[in-house]
Amino acid sequence: MIASSSLSNRDFKFIQQLIYDETGIVIADHKKEMIQRRLSRRMRDLNIEAVSEYCNILRSDARDEMVSFTNAVTTNLTSFFREAHHFDFLKEEFFPNFIQERKQRLRIWSSASSTGEEPYSLSITLLESMGDRLRQLDAKILATDLDTEVIKTAKAGIYSYDRIKDLSSSLKKTWFDDIGSGKYSVKPELKKPLTFNKLNLLGPWPMKGKFDVIFCRNVLIYFDKPTQEKVVERFYDVLEPNGVLMLGHSESVLKGSDDFEQLGKTVYRKKLN
After folding, report:
1. 143-177 burial, b for 16+ CB within 10 Å, e for fewer?
2. Whether residue 153 has pLDDT greater than 70
3. Annotated catalytic residue: which of 38, 107, 163, 217?
4. Across-strand partners of 183?
5. Residue 62, H or E segment
6. For residue 137, which of 27, 67, 95, 267 sits 20 to 30 Å off, Cα-Cα?
7. Is 88 a catalytic residue?
C-alpha cells in the first residue's frame, strides 16, 4: 500500500514539535515535503495510508513507535574522513602531544556516529598514529547515535564499494576486506577500540569517565540556540582538561566562547577556568 494522503499543516506542526521534544532538532517550515516523504516510508512498513492515522499513533504516546519515528525523520549524511582537517589535526598535533605527555588512558567520543564512517575513520587514524604504542595504551572510542538502524549498520562495518571508492588504494588495502558482491568489510582490528551505543544528546549520558576528544559535527545546526548552548556546556563538563571538541564546518556556536579556545578550523580546546 502506498501512503496517499498529504501531511496537513496541523499534523506537520505536531510532527515539528514532537521531533523537537524528542531530539532537539528544529524542522523548518520549508521541509514539510521532506518530512512527508520520510514518514511515507515508515507508513508503508505499517500498511498505513493516511498520514493523520500515523500521527494519531504518535499522539497516543506509543513509545515503541517513537524509535522508528526518530529513525525515519533524522538525517544520516556521512562519509569516511569527512572534513579531513580534523583527522589531520589528530594525526599531526593531538596524538604526538599525547604520546609526549606519556598518558596511559585515551578516550574519544563520536557523538553522532551515523553509519560508522566517522568512528572507523577515527580508529584508522588512531591505529596509524599510535602504532605499537597502543599495546601500552588504554585507548577506546565510543560511537553513539540516536538512530538504532544506523548503529546496526555501523556495528556490522560492511560497506558498498561506492562508500569507500574515494579512499586511497593504500587505505582500502590496509583496512578493508573484499567480501564479494561489491561489499567491503572493515578489518577486525578497526573494531577493537570501538563501542557502539544508542544515545540521545538531549537525554542522560551514562558514561562515567571523561573524554580527551569529542566529535560532534554537523549536528548542532539542527538545534536552536538554547539547545546548542546546553549541549556544548555538557560537552565541556565531560571533557578532560585541555580536551578537544570538533564541530562541523558550518557551526560557529563557540565563537567568542569563554570556555573554549580555537586551535584550528572548527577545532576547540577546553579552557581551564
Report:
1. bbbbbeebbebbeebebeeebbeebeeebbeebbe
2. yes
3. 38
4. 160, 180
5. none
6. 267
7. no
